[in-house]
TrEMBL record:
Belongs to the THEM4/THEM5 thioesterase family. It catalyses: dodecanoyl-CoA + H2O = dodecanoate + CoA + H(+); tetradecanoyl-CoA + H2O = tetradecanoate + CoA + H(+); (9Z)-octadecenoyl-CoA + H2O = (9Z)-octadecenoate + CoA + H(+); decanoyl-CoA + H2O = decanoate + CoA + H(+). It is a peripheral membrane protein. InterPro entries: HotDog_dom_sf (IPR029069), THEM4/THEM5_acyl-CoA_thioest (IPR052365), Thioestr_dom (IPR006683). Residues 134-206 form the Thioesterase domain. Pfam families: 4HBT. This is Acyl-coenzyme A thioesterase THEM4. SUPFAM superfamilies: Thioesterase/thiol ester dehydrase-isomerase. It comes from the Bacteria. It is found in: Cell projection, Ruffle membrane; Cytoplasm; Membrane. It comes from Nocardioides oceani. PANTHER family: ACYL-COENZYME A THIOESTERASE THEM4.
Amino acid sequence: MSAPAGEAPSSGYASIFVEEDLSTAEVDRLEAVHRPLADSVRELVDATIRTTVDDEEVAAVRAEVDALVARLRARQIEGAAGVRYNAEGRTWSWGNAVVGERNALAPPLDVVRDPDGLVHADTLLGAAYEGPPGMVHGGVGALLLDHVMGVTASARKRVTFTGTLTMRYVRSTPLGPVRLESRIDREEGRKVFVVATLADPDGVTVEAEGVFIVPRWAA
Ligand SMILES: CCCCCCCCCC(=O)SCCNC(=O)CCNC(=O)[C@H](O)C(C)(C)COP(=O)(O)OP(=O)(O)OC[C@H]1O[C@@H](n2cnc3c(N)ncnc32)[C@H](O)[C@@H]1OP(=O)(O)O
């Protein structure tokens, strides 16, 4: 997401775009330190779902996890991570639900912009993303599509917000490798129309259309 081009309203948006006095090198260094922690916590989530160890072992692990949480909380920020940027134009959103470098709930997704305008991302959805048995939760598919489509609409040059998102679930998406593809269909004033798909290795499972709006305050 680019730094906001205009004045945000006082409804709370202003607090999510925060300029930080951090060099890009320092942001990169911090990400390199924290990303492996999120990876380990992601493993913890998967192991928590799938473990079959006995009751005593579950209780012992819980005590250790609680102790680790207390160590991390010894020093922390107020509230959520927000979207931050520096004077060099580097932005970071460490808590983002889809791509947050520090967020173990994020799959995570590495979103790539191809030169021809296609935006794509590949990821692996495991046990933590289940809805129907063995299948990806419909809301998770919508979450990932919303993010990739928002990146597409923003196209590095503007802030857009999801206005309307429509999903057609063509068939169930099995847990495992998935690919997202997205592109801008057309633009009308502040409205950016985006089309996208979620696919498993056998083909498209979800088709999406979205209207993304450049808010009045950022136009
Ligand atoms: C590079 C990094 C990128 C990061 C990607 C992150 C992806 C994540 C995406 C999200 O999750 S965003 C969070 C979910 N979305 C929201 O919270 C949006 C909440 N709604 C709003 O903030 C405002 O309602 C909104 C910015 C969408 C519109 O407010 P405006 O005051 O700017 O709209 P306005 O009323 O001036 O309408 C402008 C045009 O948009 C149309 N419009 C407004 N709201 C709409 C809507 N909800 N759906 C479709 N069209 C809409 C409206 O009819 C009009 O069309 P016309 O120009 O043809 O007259």
